[in-house]
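Course exercise 7: structure representation. Students receive a sequence record and must write out the corresponding structure in token form. The form below is the worked example handed out in class, using DUF6604 domain-containing protein (825 residues). Read each field label carefully; the graders check that inputs and outputs are placed in the correct fields and that the protein name is recorded exactly as given.

STUDENT ID: A-19
EXERCISE PROTEIN: DUF6604 domain-containing protein
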Amino acid sequence: MLPEDLTGSYCRYKADTNHFTTWLVETAASCGTTLSIPVGNQLTPPHILPISQYPILAQAIAKANIPLPTSIEAAVKRAISLREQCANAFRAHSDDITSNNGHDHFIIVLKNTLEHLKPSSINTSMLQDSFRNQIYQGKPDLSVKNHKVPSMVNRFEALSVEHGDHNEQDQRENVHASIPVSQKKSHNTSTGKNPPEFSASLGEDEATEDLLQVWCLLYDLNNLRGFVKETWLGYVDGSIDAITAGVTTNAALVLGRTFMRELIAANYRCFRSWDNLSHILFTAISLYDGYDAYKPEQAGDWFNYQVLSIAERTFRHTTMLLNRCLLELDNRQDAILYDFDEARKATVATSSIEYQARSARDKWEFSWMVLFDVLQESKFGMFCDYSSGIQNKSEIELSMRDMLRTQKVSIWHAFNAQVFLDIRSTIAGCPHSPYNDLRMTVLRAKKNIGAYFKFSSVRSNPSWSKGHEDHCRAFLNSLNLYINDPIAAQWRHCDKVGPHEDFYHFKANPIDACLTMYDISLSVHRDGMAYLAGLGAVVPALYVYRLLQITPNTAQVHWPDLEEFLRLHNEDFIFIGGQPANLQECFKKLQIFHGAKASSWAKDARPGVVKRSLKQRCMMVKSSAHMALTFLKAMGTSGLAVDYSVDMIEKVFHCLRSIPNTSQDDQAEEAPSKPLRNRKQSSSENSDKYITAMELLTKMRNQMMTEEPDLIFNYYGLSLHCAAFLEELIEPGCRVVEQYTPHVSIPSSGYRPLVVLIYALAAVVESETLSQSLRMRGSLTDTEYLRRAAKIMAKHAKDNGNKACKELRAFSRKAKLGGVESSKE
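STUDENT ANSWER:
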């Protein structure tokens, strides 16, 4: 489940007002207040507290000098803010003075109640008189008595419904809930039993409440739509990468569907026909124009002449949306696969004389038939019905397929279609596109994995099993699906697929291109990290690199790829508490990292001791990309066949709540030196913080932006280059071992470059204990060995030491990447 506070505006508004009302009633009861409240005649009463009784409860609490909890104050302020925005929207679209005054009255009461509960220099009696004069005239009486009754664990145990021999109307008027007074002065809302929750009642008609629900949903969807547009504008100017734009957009669409489901599950009457877009729009337009679509005297049979104009406007809104999708898909330079003339003719037919002569109901039914004809003729399968065996990944694709399957157009379908159009229009004319980014991602992945197979064909690695190799080969074969796809040729009625025309599905649907790109990047990142650990060449090269930097009389070496690798990962973990200060510390930490004990290198060590210790407790460099790890865990073993479902997004959102919140500007400045993913924070630090949907999506976008270098870093290439460097150290390493530790034999098993390096460093450490005359016996001293290593590393750094950084500069977003930018100089 999504975090409980991550709800739509209307559900959040109801929760805030109910929370505040429950606190008012419970706290007033602890101060000695008795209320008589109409609660309805159901078996389970809703415990409705009229808004007119708020100030008296606030007065009783204020007299008792009980402080207002911060969480309660924040909830009231959120409710006031949302209702003010809603009231302004109502006032701009409707001239219904009664409804507008009702909204204003509700806001004023909440503000005055909140002000009365907060410490103030305002005279209490004057404020009380103001409340009574403005609000309580003509309202039901509220009795406030201060008397004592025995304390109870649950102050609401005595809530009861008075039943009498009356008809239904009389029963409704005489039902009350008696709230007893407690001697206990605690204002904490937690009790031994869960007290009943109260709801605020404005006394307004259902039409106003319906419009509030519709407005809140549209408010949420517009916010999500604005977030998506802002994200893709960032992609256009190069500040946001395609993967981040696509994944966060899909998460926003999942949130939109969640907001809709909340209102549908609550069975609100205006969302009972949620799967009929025309019905929803008709209801919304009716309410905005002052009609109640549910009242027979106004709506009749839904198609009477009084609301015929509203029905026609509803149809125009619906068809306009779908026609825009139609034009987007039709406006291409390549061949048009489908004929849209019939749909256009049918749409024009709604203004014909024959159409105007029909009855209102016939007009509506004919318009709906035309709407579905437009839907069928537009063939949304052109960008979503991809039959190549790849699972549908994006929320947009899922909604479009559902629309074709159910033959209905719901508000969910319309929202996804509108976001799709927004993205297409935003990236139109952009020099870079998700389609090209995906193509380059596939080609880079094939190149890197192909380099691994070329390297493994001439060199063996005992740590890399046949299962790993089979997995990489299967993944490499799956990448060919995106390059040589016969389905694309069928779509364009051509027999041959060109080298740059094989991603037609992803040309039309940029979101699916981004999600597929993320799948590939995650797989390459996971396999690259596994290959890095299996080959075991990068960490030893890092130790030699740091050792050469602190060793005097050696050539200064700068290997940009190694520096970038350290920046992206936990350097303290790699060097076990910090960079080594000398040769002895470097050697000991390298032993510990690979699971060997210092005693294994003694002169009298038995053969095989070192070999066994190298295979035990070997530490592994782990990915620092928390979001990527969460997605990989959510995907499980499905790999590229998984879709970005609601369940997956829920897991990612739960992960995000444990990550510190940082603004995008601060994060851009701090990312080079202190990446967000490496910061430590207790799990409970943000547990009580209210996070809105927009804040969570922004956090997700910012976090993914910091992880982008991790995903596209060439772990395969760095591992191969470090392995080549270590192989050149085998010959001088064997010589120094033979010279200074002739009693130790280098085992032939295991990863030989690593074994030779560790034995060579052990020999160098051993040589420092020898006398000066013994040390000068040979020509290859400890200093000479390190000088030779420095020359070899300098050569490799010059030839291949900057390739991963060059790829980051070429494929990453245009924002500065700290160490990457410094490597340009």
